[in-house]
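Internal tracking record. Fields below are filled automatically when a chain is submitted to the structure queue. Please do not edit lines marked as system-generated. If the sequence contains nonstandard residues, flag them in the REMARKS field before resubmitting.
Queue: standard
Priority: normal
Entity type: single polypeptide chain
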Amino acid sequence: MLKGNPYTRKLTIYKEFPKNLLVEIFQPFLYYAYFSAYGTRGVSKVHNSKLTLYSKLKRFYEYNKAFGRKQVHFYGTRKAHIEYNTRHLGFYQIKLTQAELNSVPNNTQQVIGHVIYPIAYNDDVDSDEDEEDEEDEEDEDVNSVS
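SYSTEM-GENERATED OUTPUT FOLLOWS
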């Protein structure tokens, strides 16, 4: 989800960042990402979810571009305190205007759908299984004795 947005892909979130906090912060964003990827195509709610997700991730990034980075504070002669930059706007704290939703680039819909979830729009997955089933049936017909 973060790698598919041109803004949040610039974030550097360290591996040691607390996972439970990361999940808590991005859970509402993830809901919109899943809905926009797996919702029924052609429904306006899916389109609005994509626009909302894009705009809110953009605002999230603009609020604190250093989110997720490790900060080491030295004090004394060999003592250090490590913390992570967790300052952020919550999903529901980000209020969007209609102008912000309308300013989303036209190619964003394709980028969001293709980069984040390439398998969600892959129609070839089922056809491979169907071909294997047909081959198995043909093999059974050849091997059967009448």
